[in-house]
Design brief:
The complex is a heterodimer of chains A (about 300) and B (about 375). By secondary structure, chain A is mainly α. Chain A is about 75% helix and about 0% strand. Chain A has 13 helices and 2 strands, in the order H-H-E-E-H-H-H-H-H-H-H-H-H-H-H. The radius of gyration of chain A is 23 Å and the shape is globular. The chains are: A mainly alpha (about 300), B alpha/beta (about 375). At the A-B interface, helix 2, helix 4, helix 6, helix 11 and helix 12 of A face helix 1, helix 6, helix 7, helix 8 and strand 7 of B.
């Protein structure tokens, strides 16, 4: 991950030198800032504006209101936010653990062929989503799916169209994503550290407990945050699989924004969008201070 | 308006970006019909205002193009309707975003107000037609056949009127299901465990909403009380009969949704489509819950091609246009009148699923209430 970058942290000398270089660096970042401003800033502004205002259809007068935001935090809308957070947190956690195990297996195998194969496959699978993914699962492990029939999964209580089923589908693209982001961090664990720990009498568990995991923690958390965001924003797969039976905020937004049933709910959808941004922001806020710590170790 | 399009959140975001960008750069391009004729066309409330049908055709041909939105070619025979219109009048139909929903259509009218690429005509869910008329988005226009449209199915001022519709029906694959269900009560039988699906989520899909409304009527509910329908699906979910997956042609063909509650014109279309593919799709309009719903047609008040838009309306409500809808298993609004005067195509009428009784329609307030109740209670009932 980018945590391996060699940005100098602290140090007065470095600080002053950087400050002098400041204006020119800023100039180089201008295209990025302009792009971000246009593609994130503008929509965000429009979203914020729509979420806190209301236009009277009769008079065309626009006024400030907290009505949409308060509605977005009540009843089924609140339920969908909670549902999304639960599903995203759970799947991100499971995928983080499994992804690390797979990546660690690849690193320790030292086989270049295996590494290439896993990375390529992960790259493809991590981007496999939407309706095609949903239908792939329906055809294999749906009620009349091939595997369901062969292995008699339904007698084991398997049901694709449930919270569990949806979580499994999400893991299908989240685990490869975790493998992709965590592999470089695992590479950064130097063998010397392990040897040093062993020389000092540490066992395998002690090495991970006191050296490996603390060093990796920021990368692990970074991966988790990325997975959380990915699951949190997913929409099409869930819409095709579970409809309203697993309430998710992205489904609610689509209902209000481009549905055939609910009329005049666009502003609530925008308010829900704002809620999503706030939740994502909160999750990021936990991660950022930890990210800073990683630079010390993985330089 | 249609089969709910499934898009990633990324696309939603992209759309938001586009909307914002276009909103900023939306300098109104000079009115399409800035000349005298155009101004007249934009306010014409009937063919008479043009000086008769011939003059309307002439004005429309001069504009040369028509912008339509949200008309899937495989829905209610729209593909053939568009083609016939093009060849008959030599006017190019520019079809945009065929799978869009009603909400998208209204958004397109608002965000492209005054631009040349705004949609000319709209085919909307009834609630969107009503709210759009209240917001003053549509131009009143009465087609020649205006008087034959039943009073309950049109806006008095002519800002919108129903075009075609259908009944909630139960489609069933007779190859996989030995006894096809004929009523909502049948669906509760244990033999249908894990077999019953809706065409989408009722809080988003119009046909799924119709399914819940019809189930309410079948279970002592009414237009004012959709709760029994929600409870019915709650019960189906608990017994394991209802599966929340969205039924699509793919899931029907695969056999994953062997029983699908959907509009009868879509189900009847599946029957044709899958005949040679090992699916024997049978369609029944449930006798215990008869619910019909029509879509509504409207002309954009700021239509870039005002004459072509009005000609399109005349075409749709002509015998030819109505029969083309009928060919796609949709029931055109003039069907009763055309059956009476013998102009309805009998081969297509014979292919429609049988229905007993005449349809009733909910009042605007009842519909709004039903939707609000559904949005509030649906998730809990089926989760």
């Amino acid at each position: 991950m980018s945590s391996a970058s060699s940005t100098p942290t602290g140090g007065t000398a470095g600080g002053t030198r950087r400050r002098r270089r400041g204006p020119r660096t800023w100039l180089a970042a201008l295209p990025l800032i302009a792009f971000t401003g246009l593609c994130f800033g503008l929509p965000f502004g429009a979203l914020l504006y729509g979420a806190v205002t209301r236009t009277d259809p009769g008079t065309g007068v626009t006024s400030l209101t907290g009505e949409h935001l308060s509605r977005s935090l009540q009843g089924p809308y609140l339920g969908s936010l909670v549902g999304s957070v639960q599903l995203s947190a759970l799947t991100a956690l499971i995928a983080s653990v499994l992804g690390v195990l797979v990546a660690q297996a690849v690193v320790t195998s030292r086989s270049q062929a295996l590494r290439n194969a896993v990375l390529t496959a992960s790259g493809v699978l991590a981007n496999f989503g939407g309706v095609p993914l949903a239908f792939a699962f329906i055809a294999t492990v749906g009620i009349s799916g091939v595997v369901t029939q062969l292995a008699d999964l339904s007698s084991l209580g398997w049901n694709l169209y449930s919270f569990t089923g949806l979580a499994v589908v999400y893991l299908y693209f989240l685990i490869p994503l975790m493998v992709l982001v965590i592999l470089p961090a695992l590479d950064g664990l130097r063998p010397q550290w392990r040897e040093a720990a062993q020389n000092a009498g540490a066992g395998g568990w002690q090495y991970w407990r006191h050296v490996g995991i603390p060093v990796l923690a920021p990368s692990l958390l970074g991966g988790f945050v990325l997975l959380f965001g990915s699951a949190f924003a997913a929409h099409a797969t869930a819409a095709a699989l579970v409809g309203g039976s697993v309430p998710l905020v992205t489904l609610k937004i689509a209902d209000a924004l481009s549905g055939n049933v609910l009329v005049g709910q666009e502003n609530v959808a925008l308010a829900l969008g704002l809620d999503m941004i706030l939740i994502a922001g909160l999750v990021m806020a936990v991660y950022l201070p930890l990210q800073r710590r990683s630079a010390r170790w993985l330089r | 308006m249609r089969r709910t399009p499934l898009r990633g959140a990324a696309v939603l975001l992209g759309a938001a970006v586009l909307t914002t960008v276009t909103a900023c750069g939306a300098a109104p391009e000079g009115e399409a019909g800035a000349n005298g004729d155009g101004a007249k066309a934009a306010t014409a409330a009937s063919a008479k205002d043009f000086g008769g049908m011939d003059a309307l055709v002439k004005a429309a041909k001069q504009e040369g193009a028509l912008h339509v939105i949200a008309l899937p070619p495989d829905w209610a025979n729209y593909g053939e309707l568009i083609k016939t219109f093009e060849t008959t009048y030599g006017i190019k139909v520019e079809s945009e975003n065929p799978d869009a929903a009603s909400a998208d259509e209204i958004a397109a009218v608002k965000s492209r107000k005054g631009q040349k690429r705004a949609p000319d005509v709209l085919d909307l869910g009834i609630a969107f037609a009503r709210s759009g008329a209240e917001e003053g988005l549509f131009a009143p226009y009465k087609v020649e056949a205006w008087d034959k449209i039943p009073a309950a199915q049109k806006d008095e001022a002519g800002r919108w009127y129903n075009d075609y519709g259908g009944y909630v029906s139960i489609g069933c694959d007779a190859k996989r299901i030995p006894n096809c269900p004929k009523t909502f009560a049948d669906l509760l039988k244990p033999e249908y465990k894990g077999k019953v699906a809706l065409n989408g989520n009722p809080t988003k899909s119009g046909s799924a909403f119709g399914g819940v409304y019809a189930a309410a009527l079948a279970n002592k509910g009414s237009f004012a009380d959709i709760q029994p329908g929600i409870d019915f699906f709650g019960k189906l979910k608990k017994s394991g009969n209802f599966i929340p997956v969205e039924s699509t042609p793919a899931t029907v063909e695969k056999g994953e949704t062997p029983i699908s509650i959907d509009w009868d014109y879509l189900n009847a279309g599946y029957a044709d489509q899958f005949k040679g593919k090992g699916v024997d799709w049978q369609v029944a309009v449930p006798t215990d819950g008869v619910y019909a719903q029509f879509y509504s047609q409207a002309v954009n008040k700021d239509a870039p091609h005002p004459a072509a838009a009005r000609l399109w309306m005349e075409f749709l409500y002509s015998t030819q246009g109505q029969n083309l809808w009928l060919k796609g298993y949709a029931r055109p609004v003039l069907l009763p009148a055309m059956t009476a005067d013998g102009t309805a195509d009998k081969t297509f009428v014979a292919k429609l699923p049988a229905v007993t009784g005449t349809p009733a329609f909910p009042a605007s307030a009842e519909l709004d209430k039903a939707k609000a109740t559904l949005a509030e209670k649906w998730d809990k009932a089926v989760s």
